[in-house]
Design goal:
The chain has 212 residues and is an alpha/beta fold. It has a single domain, classed as Alpha/Beta hydrolase fold, catalytic domain (Rossmann fold), CATH 3.40.50.1820. Helix content is 31%, strand content 24%. Strands 1, 2, 3, 4, 5, 6, 7, 8 and 9 form a nine-stranded mixed beta sheet that branches. This is Alpha/beta hydrolase.
Length: 212
């Protein structure tokens, strides 16, 4: 599912059951991709609960850039991708959006406008490494929906406080990449995603759309 946004094309990889209980839309960090271990672990947890999962490669990454550029342009492109997914799945399927690092910031900033029911924020980068006195906590607090944060206790960007989100799961021994034990990331997300799963999970049928 290639989506042409105002700021360039985005690519969406879909895993979808026949009648999804919810739609989880995930995206990457600034210089990463949608195959990150923590994203895949959360994807698997959602699929086991009968959700559809869309992993979005944003326009700046498809263009080969490591820096996302303007937050306003990034958010605008993200909302256009969400709009395309909404048209595909319908407004009656609950939307949960999330991502890792910079992707978690995008998901928080756009949650209210996207009509999301919740946000999964993996490795939320609380403080810029080059300016540790600055905090991005307002992006968490102003999401307008409940946010689950999953961070490692050794993350050099810092760890949000318990009061900064609906739930903050801190994983021992993990750094910013959350790749030491991806299964623990999925386990942290699973109970929170379950609220949208209904009474049963459904087996998902992987679908690869877009790209070569």
């Amino acid at each position: 599912m290639d989506v042409v946004t105002t700021h360039g094309p985005a690519e969406v990889l879909l895993d979808e059951p026949g009648a999804p209980a919810f739609l989880l839309v995930l995206t990457h960090g600034s210089n990463g991709g949608v195959e990150a271990p923590d994203l895949l672990a959360v994807r698997d947890a959602a699929l086991a609960l009968g959700g559809a999962v869309a992993r979005v490669t944003q326009p700046f990454r498809l263009a080969g850039r490591r820096a996302p550029g303007s937050a306003a342009k990034q958010d605008e492109a993200w909302l256009e991708v969400i709009g395309a997914l909404r048209r595909r799945f319908g407004d009656d399927v609950p939307l949960v959006q999330g991502g890792r690092s910079n992707g978690a910031r995008v998901a928080c900033r756009t949650a209210a406008e996207a009509g999301a029911a919740g946000v999964v924020a993996l490795a939320f980068p609380l403080r810029p490494l080059r300016n540790p006195d600055r905090t991005r906590v307002d992006e968490l607090r102003s999401a307008g929906v409940e946010v689950l944060v999953v961070n490692g206790d050794r993350d050099p960007f810092g760890v949000p406080d318990a009061a900064d989100a609906a739930e903050v799961a801190v994983l021992a021994g993990e750094r910013h990449d959350l790749k030491r034990d991806p299964a623990a990331v999925g386990s942290a997300a699973e109970p929170w995603l379950r609220r949208w799963a209904g009474s049963r999970g459904r087996a998902a049928r992987p679908v690869r759309t877009g790209g070569p």
